[in-house]
């Protein structure tokens, strides 16, 4: 059974990048903050196997990609227009990608119950209206679990501002789902702003009959009122349930000078989720439970991309010479692997299954009764391999040249072996890792024409390789790093090795003129001369693919 996506190395990254690619947006996972530039979405590195972080990340990508696809970042929508636009873009997104509705609904549920978002406060009257609008729109149009908040906000608003104003505001709220363009959002937002600027006065209380004048003072002092929170009280305290017309007029007047931007803080979904993702990153960093996996960089093939150009580059980089020097070893590896993978059947005289290929023996002049199958042909497990080449600053031109020759000719040979495929990566490449050859492709010399620079982020490189491997269909998965020094962080590197092994990935290494690799990976060999690297790499593969396979 394949592992669940949550247990895969980089499982969240794989899911997020697939989601981003499907929606036509660029997604990067790096750093400690979530944000969007208008053309790409950035998610911070998050703890693996964290369900909450995964739900928030998926919902954030859905929401922000909706902005990228449907918003006009150059347009001034107005504050109310922006609030209506939030519902509009998500509605469009869910129409195009129905799965987004589930992701957004799950995310809103977390925000509602854990973060206390979407709920306005009586101390900030404008927030009652912004919350009412957003919650009702999200509940009725998007099916998100905010209907109870919307009803509560409407009740509080009617007590604070009176029915005449709230009836008109409710009519505007009911039209949020009818907005089908950004123009509709802006126009409806302008109507709300006009309503707030020129609100209808609240209704005055009915005058008491003349006969009740003598008791009017006492009655007014003891009349029951209901507070916005629904509690019963006496008198005209600050929590008085049935706000007087005068108080409602004051509240309506206060809306004209209220800070609408501040009132939207609890309903600004993008900012709320970005802050929560930042907290999830910090929590994972504090517990040492982050998988800081670099993104994949795809180097340019260079000026020449034709067959002739590739052959010329192969000659210039010494690949032809490397092929000649390793041809015998590569042929031996192929032959041994073929012998191990295919176990021939030998017919026998007794058994439960007749071997159809041996029945003819019975009809011979001297009959041979060995016509029963002894065992069937058995195909051994298929294998996926990632070769990692260190291109740090300490890899001088000679080391770099031999390392690239070794990986090129070895990758070329592996792709010809039955049941085996490989990918090649070089690290570092700025903040990323360069993929010199993907799985299943023939290596091209132009992609290997690179130099050296930077440090040795071995832990990140190993996790990158693990991310490529954990969702592969092959049953055996192997990573082989080649390096000439110590990792930038040996503790993180040891943890990365353990993480790979937990996911069933075998890790073997080669130290290039340096024994530091033995400090974090026992399954390693060290070469004393750079010329030994091609033979050492092929020998290690022979050990992994054949000897260890037989033992297993």
TrEMBL record:
PROSITE patterns in the record: VWFA
Compositionally biased residues, Polar residues: 212-251
Basic and acidic residues bias spans: 278-298
Region named Disordered: 193-257, 278-313
Residues in VWFA domain copies: 384-512
Stored InterPro entries: NorD/CobT, Uncharacterised_CoxE, VWF_A, vWFA_dom_sf
Family annotation (SUPFAM superfamilies): vWA-like
PANTHER family: NORD PROTEIN
Official protein name in the record: VWA domain-containing protein
Gene source species: Geobacter benzoatilyticus
């Amino acid at each position: 059974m394949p592992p669940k996506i949550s247990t895969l190395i980089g499982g969240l990254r794989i899911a997020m990048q697939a989601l981003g690619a499907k929606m036509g947006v660029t997604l990067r996972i790096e750093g400690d903050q979530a944000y969007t530039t208008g053309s790409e979405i950035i998610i911070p590195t998050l703890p693996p196997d964290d369900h909450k972080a995964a739900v928030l990340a998926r919902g954030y990508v859905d929401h922000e990609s909706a902005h990228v696809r449907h918003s006009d970042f150059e347009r001034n929508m107005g504050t109310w227009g922006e609030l209506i636009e939030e519902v509009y873009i998500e509605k469009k997104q869910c129409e195009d990608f129905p799965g987004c509705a589930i992701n957004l609904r799950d995310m809103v549920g977390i925000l509602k119950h854990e973060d206390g978002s979407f709920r306005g406060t009586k101390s900030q009257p404008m927030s009652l209206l912004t919350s009412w609008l957003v919650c009702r729109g999200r509940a009725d149009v998007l099916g998100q679990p905010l209907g109870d908040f919307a009803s509560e906000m409407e009740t509080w608003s009617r007590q604070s501002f009176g029915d005449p104003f709230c009836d008109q505001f409710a009519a505007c709220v009911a039209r949020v789902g009818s907005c089908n363009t950004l123009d509709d959002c802006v126009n409806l937002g302008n109507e709300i702003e006009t309503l707030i600027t020129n609100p209808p006065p609240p209704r005055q209380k009915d005058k008491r009959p003349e006969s009740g004048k003598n008791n009017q003072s006492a009655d007014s002092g003891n009349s029951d009122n209901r507070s916005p929170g629904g509690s019963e009280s006496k008198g005209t305290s600050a929590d008085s349930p049935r706000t007087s017309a005068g108080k409602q007029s004051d509240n309506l007047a206060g809306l004209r000078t209220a800070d609408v931007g501040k009132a939207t803080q609890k309903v600004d979904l993008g900012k709320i989720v970005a802050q929560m993702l930042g907290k999830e990153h910090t929590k994972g960093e504090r517990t040492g439970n982050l998988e800081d996996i670099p993104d994949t960089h795809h180097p340019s093939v260079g000026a020449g991309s034709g067959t002739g150009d590739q052959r010329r580059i192969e000659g210039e980089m010494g690949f032809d010479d490397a092929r000649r020097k390793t041809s015998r070893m590569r042929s031996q590896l192929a032959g041994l692997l073929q012998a191990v993978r295919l176990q021939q059947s030998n017919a026998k005289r007794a058994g439960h299954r007749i071997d159809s290929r041996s029945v003819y023996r019975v009809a011979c002049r001297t009959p041979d009764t060995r016509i029963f199958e002894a065992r069937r042909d058995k195909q051994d497990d298929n294998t996926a391999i990632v070769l990692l080449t260190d291109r740090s600053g300490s890899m001088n031109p000679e080391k770099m040249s031999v390392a690239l020759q070794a990986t090129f000719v070895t990758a070329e040979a592996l792709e010809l072996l039955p049941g085996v495929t490989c990918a090649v990566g070089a690290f570092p490449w700025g903040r990323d890792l360069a993929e010199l050859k993907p799985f299943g492709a023939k290596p091209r010399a132009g992609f290997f024409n690179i130099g050296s620079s930077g440090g040795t982020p071995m832990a990140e490189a190993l996790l990158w390789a693990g991310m490529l491997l954990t969702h592969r269909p092959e049953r055996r998965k192997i990573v082989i790093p080649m390096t000439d020094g110590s990792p930038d962080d040996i503790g993180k590197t040891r943890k990365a090795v353990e993480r790979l092994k937990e996911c069933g990935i075998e890790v073997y290494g080669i130290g290039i003129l340096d024994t530091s690799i033995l400090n974090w990976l026992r399954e390693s060999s060290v070469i004393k001369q750079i010329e030994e690297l091609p033979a050492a790499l092929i020998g290690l593969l022979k050990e992994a693919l054949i000897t260890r396979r037989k033992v297993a």
